[in-house]
Amino acid sequence: MKRTILLLTFAVLALCVSAQKRDKAVVKKEKQLVGNFVEIPAQHFTLNILDSLGKVAHTSEYTTAGFYMMTTEVSRASYNAFLKDLQAQGRMEDYAKASIQDTALEKISRKYKDWNAPDFGNYPVANISYEGALLFCQWLTDKVGSSEWEYTLPDKIDWQVAAWGGNFLEKYANGSLITPLDAYRYTFFNIPADCLTKAEDGYRAVAWMLAPQPYNVNMLQLKNGEKYLSVNPATTSVVSHDPNPYGLYNMCGNVAEMVYGESIALGGSWADPGYDIRIQSEKTFTEPSPMVGFRVIAVRK
Question: Whole-model pTM above 0.85?
Answer without folding.
Answer: no
